[in-house]
Amino acid sequence: MSGQQGVEALVAALIDVDTRENALLDLSKKRDMFADLAPILWHSFGVIPALLQEIVSIYPLLSPPSLTAHASNRVCNALALLQCVASHPDTRALFLNGAAAARAAVAAVASTLALAPCRSQFQYADAAPRARSTHPAVSVPVSEHRQQDAALRVPPTHQSGRHRRPG
User: Fold this and answer.
1) Looking at 71, 90, 109, which one is the last position of a domain?
2) Together in a domain, 103 and 64
């Protein structure tokens, strides 16, 4: 098996929970040997979520502190592969845009839930590929028929174009 085929096999092994640990270790050790590892990781279906799952899975072990050396090494390997993606010139912008979009979506959901119950469901804007990103846009839920909840209603004197003239 050639080097490229070996890397592709290891990347595919990241998807399967049973083979992920060995793949994380091997890819982490060999990440500097393959210039195209970051684009392969980024564009391979399910790999980034698998790496994120590895990171999230250790959070319960942090409080109370019960993180083992084995779990620590495993998450460090996942972080090393994400760093590879974040630092590669072909995937850096994609990674940062994806992270920013995820933060914005989480913030929008959190603020919507905190302010008022939503009467409409989340809907995805067009899922067509865009020039700079292949991620779909997430629209923020808005009350149906442009009605405002009483707690969020803007008084008429503060609405745009309705300022009173002095005198």
Assistant:
1) 90
2) no
Radius of gyration, CA atoms only, the chain: 23
| Residues 73 and 37 both lie in one domain | yes
Tokens of 103: 């933060």
Q: What is the pLDDT along the chain (167 residues), one digit of tens a residue?
A: 667 888 999 999 999 999 999 999 999 999 999 989 999 999 999 999 999 999 999 989 988 899 999 999 999 999 999 999 999 999 999 988 887 777 776 676 666 555 444 333 333 343 343 344 444 444 444 444 444 444 444 445 444 444 455 55
Number of domains forming the structure of the chain = 2
In this structure, the answer to whether residues 79 and 32 fall within a common structural domain is yes
DSSP secondary structure string, 2-60?
-HHHHHHHHHHHTTSHHHHHHHHHHHHHHGGG-TTHHHHHHHSTTHHHHHHHHHHHTGG
The single-letter code of the amino acid at 9 is A
pTM for this model (two decimals) = 0.61
Range of the domain at 65: 1-90
Tell me whether residue 38 is in a domain: yes
In a domain? residue 22: yes
Greatest Cα pair distance, the chain, in angstroms, is 85
